[in-house]
User: Which sequence fits this backbone?
């Protein structure tokens, strides 16, 4: 991690979900004893977070399609544990909604993969660090007549169960 504090104007829950998708994939598609490295650094007006693993890697001809909805690399299907192939697509969309980008790199099958997430930093002036009151989301009670129905979709059952628990609270 960088020595300095880095501020983002972001939805913590959604970015957590994006990074959890990357970390879960890294762990899922790696043999026992493998290594996952997460590095965060400032690059100009952005924060660059790299998630690098020593897993099964991604063939060069599939690098451009890993972010497509329902996409899974053939060599990864046996490890998908019933996953739908939406995690990376969702990650890309969440990062883009925050004004960022996500890129995939791999030297090929068996050589691990690297995902690079770049997000814009918030200007470091006190007035810019908190949103105006009109943009602050309030927390209120939902009356039984206002009950919400929420569909949770994730290829990780533990992540789904955790999100269900959080939403029920």
Assistant:
């Amino acid at each position: 991690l960088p020595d300095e504090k880095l501020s983002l104007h972001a939805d913590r829950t959604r970015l957590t979900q994006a990074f959890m998708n990357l970390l879960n994939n890294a762990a899922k598609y790696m043999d026992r004893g493998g290594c996952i490295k997460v590095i965060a650094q400032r690059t100009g007006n952005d924060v660059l977070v790299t998630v690098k693993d020593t897993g099964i890697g991604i063939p060069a001809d599939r690098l451009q399609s890993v972010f497509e909805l329902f996409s899974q690399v053939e060599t990864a299907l046996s490890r998908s544990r019933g996953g739908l192939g939406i995690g990376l697509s969702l990650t890309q969309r969440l990062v883009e909604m925050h004004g960022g980008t996500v890129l995939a790199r791999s030297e090929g099958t068996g050589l691990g993969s690297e995902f690079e997430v770049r997000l814009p930093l918030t200007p470091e002036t006190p007035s810019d660090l908190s949103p105006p009151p009109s943009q602050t989301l309030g927390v209120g009670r939902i009356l039984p007549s206002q009950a919400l129905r929420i569909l949770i979709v994730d290829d990780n059952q533990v992540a789904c169960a955790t999100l269900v628990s959080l939403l029920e609270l």
About this structure: The radius of gyration is 18 Å. Residues 127-139 have pLDDT under 50 and may be disordered. The beta strands are 36-43, 46-53, 101-105, 113-120.
